[in-house]
Write a structure and sequence with these properties.
Number of strands: 22
CATH topology of the largest domain: Alkaline Phosphatase, subunit A
CATH architecture of the largest domain: 3-Layer(aba) Sandwich
Radius of gyration: 22 Å
Number of domains: 3
Structural class: alpha/beta
Strand content: 15-25%
């Protein structure tokens, strides 16, 4: 009944504010997805040492969540869950993807963009992908022909991609299934096994590097930075890291500018602040934290570019903007970039324990801001439990399209939570980072095992049987394991996690 009333009110409000045309009834939807941005990294979440005026502007004009979560503490599974409405652990091969991985989301899968296509939306993705491309198995991609399946086969009308991540080959952009500026006489080849070609590597030619590697990132050198994996060819097509934010922001703005005839969905997937952190020179020195802080300033600028385009096209009032991150923060993640040394008093995960790769709260509790003028209250805060896995069903409800039976199995209709009308949110939520953990209300259950913490270099915490139970209402930093005090609650949480593991979560 609560959700039914919210939907009726929403429909009435939308007509009253915006008229009755198709574009007016269905807001444009812009999802800006940061990479490795921690709960405490933006100014509106308590950041020190860096200013984020555009992120803070969203907070002032919209809704700021304090208990919103990505689905996993690493990028590929979070992105999978975001787009499919399914926890990534339900499908094999959804761990951190190689740069030459085959498409993880298969054609025919119902996705957030395909649902929006069915509702009459023009859909586009610009930026980091990291969900694999092409058929077959990892390593089978022919980078020099049309690359598919890809985003176009799972609901996106347009794509301009960083195929995996900036620290993995191939270091090229892919637009509508083709490498941008590829010279056919200089074909691209990649390997994640034996070395190929005779190009320099970080391991053998460290004198050629402008950013030294600390661990794992010591193979082919592109633009003075050594990467994971080997690559030959594509010299004219290779990106320049310092220009990446400008390139993808330009493509995002162009997509908005060209989407005036019907409602659109833009998934703007930023590369910042993932390694290698190589911001443009105009952002260097803009923070007190070195390249990681300067990359946050650049990230904030990218968001500002999209907001400017909405304003310039008169779309801001009829656009739902969601800003969030794919996982918690990390410091040294493969390159010496002073992330640890220049951290100062800044707390990337805020008051929470752990970060990227961790089952503790810092791994999945991320910033999340929602702005929709006239529909979402300005300057509001929500402490409701919300999971990105619910965006598929919630947005489907918003635009009036049904989710087919069996699709988006873990995505719940939490539209009223997304819009700030329900301040409680989800009853429970699974977190993934190697293993699984469970939130239910203010309680957090982590089964026995090794749990990574710190932000790099890492330590592991040993959680003994029967596991850990934390009361986040009084212990947000997860320092006091109260499992022995509440054995019955422990049994309930373990049983619930087992049930969700075995069967879809959607009611």
């Amino acid at each position: 009944m609560r959700k039914f009333i919210a939907t009726v009110l929403l429909a009435g409000t939308a007509v009253g504010l915006f008229g009755t045309t198709e574009a007016a009834e269905k807001p444009n939807i812009v999802l800006v997805y940061a990479d490795d941005l921690g709960f405490g990294d933006p100014g509106c979440y308590g950041a020190t040492g860096v200013a984020t005026p555009n992120i803070d502007k969203l907070a002032k004009e919209g809704l700021r969540f304090t208990d919103a979560h990505c689905s996993a503490a690493t990028c590929t599974p979070s992105r999978f869950a975001l787009l499919t409405g399914s926890y990534a652990f339900r499908q094999e091969g959804t761990g951190i993807a190689r740069g030459d991985a085959a498409a993880i989301i298969k054609p025919g899968t119902v996705t957030l963009p395909s649902l929006l296509q069915n509702a009459g939306y023009r859909t586009g993705v610009v930026g980091k992908w990291h969900l694999g491309l092409g058929n077959g198995k990892a390593g089978d991609i022919d980078w020099n022909a049309e690359i598919k399946p890809g985003p176009n086969q799972i609901g996106f009308d347009y794509h301009f991609l960083i195929p995996a991540t900036g620290d993995r080959v191939p270091c090229v952009y892919v637009e509508q299934g083709h490498i941008v500026d590829l010279d056919p006489a200089d074909p691209v080849k990649t390997s994640y096994g034996a070395p190929i070609g005779d190009g320099p590597t970080g391991k053998d030619d460290p004198e050629l590097l402008k950013m030294k590697w600390s661990h794992g990132h010591n193979q082919t050198i592109v633009n003075g930075i050594s990467r994971i994996g080997f690559m030959t060819g594509g010299e004219k097509a290779r990106w320049i890291d310092e220009d990446m934010a400008d390139v993808i922001s330009h493509k995002a703005r162009k997509f908005i500018d060209e989407s005036k005839d019907k409602p659109f969905f833009l998934y703007f997937s930023l590369h910042d602040i993932h390694v290698p952190r190589v911001p443009h020179s105009r952002f260097v020195g803009r923070s007190a934290m070195g390249p990681r802080g300067d990359a946050i300033v650049q990230l904030d600028w990218c968001l500002g570019q999209v907001l400017e385009s909405l304003d310039a096209n008169g779309m801001a009032n009829n656009s739902l903007v969601i800003f969030t991150s794919d996982n918690g923060p990390v410091l040294d993640d493969g390159y010496y970039d002073d992330a640890n040394e220049k951290l100062g008093s800044h707390s990337p995960a805020g008051p929470y324990r752990g970060g990227k790769y961790s089952l503790f709260e810092g791994g999945t509790r991320v910033p999340m801001l929602v702005r929709w003028p006239g529909r979402v209250g300005a300057g509001k805060q929500s402490d409701a439990l919300f999971g990105q896995v619910d965006l598929a069903a919630s947005i489907a409800k918003l635009v009036g399209v049904d989710v087919p039976a069996g699709a988006a199995p873990d995505s719940r209709d939490e539209l009223d939570t997304l819009l700030g009308e329900d301040m409680i949110g989800r009853p429970h939520l699974v977190h993934e980072a190697g293993g699984l953990a469970l939130r239910a209300g203010h309680l957090k259950f982590i089964p026995a095992g090794k749990v990574r913490e710190n932000l790099g270099p890492w330590k592991t915490a040993s959680i003994v049987k029967p596991g850990a139970l934390f009361d986040l209402s009084s212990d947000p930093a997860e320092q006091r394991n109260v499992a022995a005090d509440f054995p019955e609650r422990m049994e309930e949480m373990a049983a619930l996690l087992g049930k969700v593991r075995q069967s879809p979560d959607r009611p």
